[in-house]
Amino acid sequence: xxxxxxxxxxxxxxxAVVAAMATDAWQVTRDGVxxxxxxxxxxxGRLDEDAALVAGAEDPDGARQALVPAWALRLRALLAxxxxxxxxxxxLIRDVPGGQHSVQHNTAHGNGRVFGVQxxxxxxxxxxxxxxxxxxxxxxSPESRPDA
Length: 148
Hints:
Elements: H1 4-20, H2 26-36, H3 41-56, H4 60-81, H5 86-95, H6 135-138
């Protein structure tokens, strides 16, 4: 049985490989995976097919999520047969943009707002200001409010 650290490494590697599909980082990542699998043609074909699936998908992120377990399984099988490839896989994960997992913790208190985003964009549309005012401002006339 493959030790836990190598299983986790294979899972991270699967995520990194798939995250790079249909991005600017794909060719470099693809070449790294081909080297990792020692140029096996069936791996090259699978990489190209899966990247085409992601590129043509209506929901590329959903396609990526569906492919992660398969690539984690392939990498796990590779590491079981060739545990010496672990360091090379770690380097590949480290070098793939979006290949490393990130954790973000955001906290807002009272009337505070938090806007957090990783590996993407954030779009914010402010609604009418009256929806966000506290109870003290509802009972004051505009002339009596300090900010008026």
